[in-house]
């Protein structure tokens, strides 16, 4: 069981201490996973806890006047950190108080007092604390004083470029799913619970599993060929999905993910599904009427089948 903490007060790890890493960890890309694997490995060698310290909301989103798209929801991040073998996750509230905290105080209060760090692993260019005043050199200096070792993880690169959450957001915004997948080390996907829709989709010939994304700012918009995993273990089910505000029917205040699975006729309300994005087919459009929308949905479904390498429907 991974333990989760949301505040900075008081010690929380076993007396032996911990091997710890710190960062935003949005998307858990190849760089993050290499770092977390090293933390797990070193914690096993020392016989102590493996701890990840992260922040919510994402620091970048806290500071940006523009909405910053997220690669993963908070829940997906926590699941990913657990799957990477973290014994404990400190998910600190990224608020004014935390941004005002000088780097030295973060080291003393959080790394030393709260998680009793024996080793701290970060990427070599990692910055932290008020006005990004803390860097690797500070960790080394303060580690010598407080009895922990600062360790720099070699930067993970693909095609000579540093793997980063920002680079993945950009690749997705450009529709370059292949590049995003290379940086992530797996295809980009979103998970969520299926809720009931207006049931108009089935009258149009395209029943959809509707997955609300809450206030999450998504890095994608449009119509996609997708593969869907169900909680019962069935995976890679082919389909076509729309992620948008549905301007034709009734414009929604928040984007909704809707997936139509091919040759599938089951109730999956309430199930948590994972939608993997394979190809961006087009942007969302406002049609004059539902007939025009259905003509386009037929084209989308055919294009998605082709993109997924499945035979076209007879007579279509
Ligand atoms: C393949 C596909 C393409 C879609 N394209 C658009 C679109 O371009 N514009 C739009 O307003 N809605 C689009 N939608 C959303 C439909 O309007 C929506 O699925 C329909 O209203 C059914 O809603 P319901 O699931 O709440 O019944 C698309 C849906 C699918 C499955
Ligand atoms: N490519 C990488 N190789 C090794 N470590 C990395 C890499 N990218 C990030 N890290 C480290 O992982 C931790 C979490 O990184 P964080 O999510 O804050 O940054 P990021 O992935 O570079 O995202 P952003 O693009 O938003 O800055 C930090 O310690 C960071 O230095």
UniProtKB/TrEMBL annotation:
Listed EC numbers: 2.7.1.26, 2.7.7.2
Reactions that this protein is recorded to catalyse: riboflavin + ATP = FMN + ADP + H(+); FMN + ATP + H(+) = FAD + diphosphate
UniProt pathway: Cofactor biosynthesis; FAD biosynthesis; FAD from FMN: step 1/1; Cofactor biosynthesis; FMN biosynthesis; FMN from riboflavin (ATP route): step 1/1
Pfam family, one: FAD_syn
Gene Ontology biological-process annotations: FAD biosynthetic process; FMN biosynthetic process; riboflavin biosynthetic process
Keyword Iron-sulfur recorded: no
Function of the molecule: Catalyzes the phosphorylation of riboflavin to FMN followed by the adenylation of FMN to FAD.
Protein name: Riboflavin biosynthesis protein
UniProt source species: Oleiagrimonas citrea
Source organism phylogeny: Bacteria, Pseudomonadati, Pseudomonadota, Gammaproteobacteria, Lysobacterales
